Amino acid sequence: MIENVISKEIVDACYAIHVKFGPGLFESVYEELLSYELIKRGREVKRQEAFNVVYDNTVLQKVFRADLLVDNKVIVEIKSVEELKDMHFKQVRTYLKLTNIKLGLLVNFNVSLIKDGIKRIVNQI
């Protein structure tokens, strides 16, 4: 599954950023850094990608925005919070469901060890 290769690259990039900058920055800063790092590694990255939703046979334009869409295969939702809450996981699951994308990563940079802040969420299509 190509998503696994992409997610490994994302995790490696998150690690590199966290080692250099640590916790405590705003989400927007981590988004910029992660986007730059992934592009540098040859990945296609779309920031704040807007998605449409079909409801009642009507296309609703730009209903939500994903922080990062990597190679059109993996959604990355970036947080910088004290702890991840259930709503953060639900947010990513909903994004995956609405886009039919198989894999999402929920990344909280506000942790001592980045491995504790990366959560993999699979869409049960």
Summarize the structure.
With 125 residues, the chain is an alpha+beta fold. The chain is 38% helix and 33% strand.
Main traits of this protein?
single chain, 125 residues, alpha+beta, Trna Endonuclease, Chain: A, domain 1, 5-stranded mixed sheet, 5 strands, 38% helix, globular, GxxExxY, GxxExxY protein
Explain how this protein is built:
This is GxxExxY protein. This protein is an alpha+beta fold. It has a single domain (2-122), classed as Trna Endonuclease, Chain: A, domain 1 (3-Layer(aba) Sandwich), CATH 3.40.1350. The protein has helices spanning 2-21, 27-40, 86-99, and strands spanning 45-55, 58-70, 74-79, 103-108, 118-122. The chain has a five-stranded mixed sheet with strand order 1-2-3-4-5, sandwiched between helices. A hairpin with a 3-residue loop joins β2 and β3. The two termini are 15 Å apart.
